[in-house]
Amino acid sequence: MSRPLVLALALAPGLLAPACAHLPELYELPEAPTAAGLQQRCHEVGPAAAFRAVHAIEARLPLGQASAMLGVSAADPLRGRLRAALVSAEGLTLFEGLRGDGGRIRVLRAVPPLDGPDFGPMLLDDVALLLLAPRGPTLRMGRMRSGEGVCRAPVRSAVWPGGVLDVLPEATDGGAALRLYDGDESLRREVHLSGRTPAGLYQRMRLEAFGPGGYSLELTLLESEPMDPDDPLFEANEPPEERP
């Protein structure tokens, strides 16, 4: 990945401005069994067990550049833990970090200019949105005006304090969708998931980040395997840089 592309990726979090779309109104579900079934389907979005995965990533960045990278990750959805690395096409580890069960960030490696204070938390929050199934308490269940069922849950993130996440387990495109809104109820992230595997991972994932510095990530699953949730890979093997 060329240095201009690395610079554009590093600047993207700081360029984000208020998004246009806002948190939509939810309408009541017709009956209690419908609500119970919807909650179950929402909890089935994403894997339940710990896993390792490798994804091919195609990034489209704020100034129109496109880049191919690899994402190498280990995730423990039940505890909300994540270790992720961003690797260039040449094999250079550009970034590696941990996200703990309390949402705390530990940056293990960051190549300039990806070592800025906002980049690590933003990237790991995006990866968590893609790979960690939403398992927190549900604020409300309802349906969109279009009829799609929605589970609305609080976001545990220092990046988006006061934010909420809408989980649409049966989106109109046949897959699942996630929409993250900030504390001002503006849409910040939208994720489309398709090609669910027996393990609960998705063959294809697309993340859209909104605002003038908006970018998109297309992820294709290359390989995955189950792992022990107590694997020491989830712990830093060197003094980390901790960020709330």
Task: Summarize the topology.
Layout: H1 3-15, H2 32-43, E1 51-60, E2 66-76, E3 81-88, E4 93-99, E5 105-110, H3 119-131, E6 140-143, E7 149-154, E8 164-168, E9 176-181, E10 187-196, E11 202-209, E12 215-226, E13 241-243
Antiparallel strand pairs: 1-2, 1-12, 2-3, 3-4, 4-5, 5-13, 6-7, 7-8, 8-9, 9-10, 10-11, 11-12
Feature tags:
disordered N terminus; 3 helices; alpha+beta; 13-stranded antiparallel β-sheet; globular; outer membrane lipoprotein receptor (LolB), chain A; 39% strand; 244 residues
Describe the structure.
There is one protein chain. It contains three helices and 13 strands, in the order H-H-E-E-E-E-E-H-E-E-E-E-E-E-E-E. A hairpin with a 5-residue loop joins strand 6 and strand 7 (149-154). Helices cover 16% and strands 39% of the residues. The chain has a single domain (3-229), classed as outer membrane lipoprotein receptor (LolB), chain A (Clam), CATH 2.50.20. It is globular. It is of the alpha+beta class and 244 residues long. The protein has a 13-stranded antiparallel beta sheet with strand order 6-7-8-9-10-11-12-1-2-3-4-5-13, with helices on one face.
